[in-house]
């Protein structure tokens, strides 16, 4: 065999091996497929519109705190409204997200407050979720590029990297999504690649005419990437999807209206 023929043979083998490896790892998924899967999860959990009731439980080694809330979500127009139902001291505290703007109303002070950008990473209602989580709910699809990096017998692993100049705080998000499109976990990394927190989804139930994970657990991690021993658990008590939502729900005037 001539040297030229030998080199050509090696190149062909390497190309074939490369294609086989890509097919095995990615299942012939393109970046467009990865984005579609991330979008599918958002559509599953939120649809175009939804109304829901949640119980949120903040758990630490020293204490636990629980609150209940109603939510109205208009994903199409990037609007969200939350009303706290309990405990009594927080009842009728409300939150309005409209685009990139976030307001809260404190009934004890009888005033509404616009949350400034400097407070977006502050904990929301003392939980392990942040104000930014409310404002950037849609950005997980539109502000990141999505790449399938692994696939096993249970799930796809998708890596989401911020687009250039995207107004996001995370350097990377890694999603685990089951082969049938059910979210399993989201891992959040800062711009230096440090693993900051993990969001787990489980307890799949039939709710609102579809199967969804009814428990979402946010776990902050320490500098070594280990669990800190605290977490926030969100339980979906009830949900209705694709409901008609009045524009008045997403008005600042609604911030001051008491629950009935």
Automatic annotation (TrEMBL):
Uncharacterized protein TP-0789 domain residues: 78-257
Superkingdom of the source species: Bacteria
Residue ranges annotated as coiled coil are none
Q: Which Gene3D superfamilies match?
A: Lipoprotein localisation LolA/LolB/LppX (2.50.20.10)
Q: Which UniProt keywords apply?
A: Lipoprotein, Signal
- State the signal peptide span: 1-25
* PROSITE patterns given in the database record: PROKAR_LIPOPROTEIN
> Which InterPro entries does the record cross-reference, listed alphabetically?
TP_0789-like
Note the Pfam families from the entry. Answer: LolA_like
Q: What is this protein called?
A: Outer membrane lipoprotein-sorting protein
